[in-house]
Amino acid sequence: LSARMNTQSMPTGQLGMELKWYTSGNAFLSTSPCTLTGLASGWVPKSCALTAPAKAARARVRLYTTKGSGQAYVDAVKLEASQP
């Protein structure tokens, strides 16, 4: 899971990303958080490696903010499969 983020207008806030995993029948399985640190002014690339749980067939990306106020920008969100 990767994205480019800009918190220039949100100096005290925090951004987060996570994947919510579902079965082929849309039953919720679990959530995999992607901890983001080192965000600064300007566009910063962020990524993390996550492992799908057994029986996962779908994933939903969730972007969120915690603490603070202001504006945050997110671009080029990408989920790519890799071979173990």
Structure description:
There is one protein chain. By secondary structure, this protein is an all-beta fold. It is built from no helices and six strands. It has strands at residues 2-9, 14-22, 28-34, 44-47, 58-66, 71-78. The strands form two sheets. Strands 4-1-6 form a three-stranded antiparallel beta sheet, with no helix packed on it. A three-stranded antiparallel beta sheet has the order 3-2-5, with no helix packed on it. The mean pLDDT is 85.
Gyration radius, in Å: 14 Å
Stretches where pLDDT is under 50 for at least 5 consecutive residues are: none
Spatial sequence of strands, sheet with the most strands: 4-1-6
Question: What's the number of extended β-strand segments?
Answer: 6
How much beta, percentage-wise? over 45%
Count, helices = 0
Order of SSEs = EEEEEE
Described by strand count, sense and barrel closure, the largest sheet is: 3 strands, antiparallel
- Seen as an oligomer or otherwise, the chain set is single chain
Helix content: under 10%
Shape: elongated
User: Helix/strand/pairing class, anyone?
Assistant: mainly beta
Q: What is the distance, rounded to the nearest whole angstrom, between the alpha carbons of the first and last residues?
A: 15 Å
Mean residue pLDDT = 85
